[in-house]
Amino acid sequence: MGKISYINASPVYYGLDHGLLPHWLAMISDVPSVLNRKIITGQIEVSPISAAFYAMHHRELLLLPDLSISCHGRVLSVILASNYAIDDLEGKKVMFTRESASAASFMKMIFNQRKVSPVYEIGSVNNCRMVSESVDAALVIGDAALRQPWDQVFEYTIDLGQLWFEMTQLPFVFAVWVVRRSFAQKYPFLVKDIHQLLLESKKQGYQHMDEVVEAGKTKLNLERSIIKEYFDLLYCDLDDKKIKAMQMFFNSLLDQGILKEKTDIRFFKA
Ligand SMILES: C=C(O[C@@H]1C=C(C(=O)O)C=C[C@H]1O)C(=O)O
């Protein structure tokens, strides 16, 4: 099973990290783009992945109910740090983190809609000062977005959760938990157990939110209030409104030619 290595998924894994993990379940922790690749190659069977990547491979995957990494407005950890307003990035260098698919697709969609054509680069965005020396803007997600003082180095920091909310008044689903269809067909009861474990693990995470915040604070070396605010802004469920918002996002990606076919959102049912 996969695990996102950022603090954003830590509420979901709290229980598994504190005794719930059974001996037969191996955990692979990595950044979203690596988990995206590993679920397609079959190196992992169940994992959180980028929602946009699910859309690209929906025929091979099924969603697990009630799990996501989402926001409803600001998210803090998905940002475009830029020295120009979005509409003024024509011909400018924009570096995309290599760890994202959802935020990267969303950003491309925004540039397409606004008829702005930057010069894209893909790279490592772990040091904001170094990044600012080589490009005009950077798309950053996860711990690196929270940890580095992007707002001190770039003129603007645009929160993509907020940007989507201003456009749609809807939540944005960045990550979803999926199972490979072939595995779910073969082992439906095992998948049901893993799904139940994830839900129980998440429940324990929300019951021990103070500890989750403390662990995030220690990992990122930031003030407690910032981490607390971060987890207040993040949602790990997948209710009807989020599903509808996700479908709308996929439809917009299709309209912009970023997706090749309509996504038929399908859930695992035991
Ligand atoms: C909110 C976040 O959501 C994430 C963004 C992802 C993406 O852009 O592909 C994938 C998984 C999530 O980790 C974040 O990374 O901070």
Automatic annotation (TrEMBL):
Protein's GO biological process: menaquinone biosynthetic process
Gene Ontology terms, MF aspect: hydro-lyase activity
Catalytically driven reaction(s): chorismate = 3-[(1-carboxyvinyl)-oxy]benzoate + H2O
**SUPFAM superfamilies, alphabetized:** Periplasmic binding protein-like II (SSF53850)
Keyword terms of this UniProt record: Lyase, Menaquinone biosynthesis
Give the enzyme class.
lyase
List its EC numbers.
4.2.1.151
Q: In which pathway does it act?
A: Quinol/quinone metabolism; menaquinone biosynthesis
A Pfam family annotated for this chain is VitK2_biosynth
Does the entry feature the keyword Lyase, yes or no?
A: yes
Q: Which PANTHER family match?
A: CHORISMATE DEHYDRATASE (PTHR37690)
Write out the similarity annotation: Belongs to the MqnA/MqnD family. MqnA subfamily.
- What does the UniProt function comment say about this protein? Catalyzes the dehydration of chorismate into 3-[(1-carboxyvinyl)oxy]benzoate, a step in the biosynthesis of menaquinone (MK, vitamin K2).
The protein's name is: Chorismate dehydratase
Q: Specify the taxonomic lineage.
A: Bacteria, Pseudomonadati, Thermodesulfobacteriota, Desulfobacteria, Desulfobacterales
Gene coding for it:
mqnA
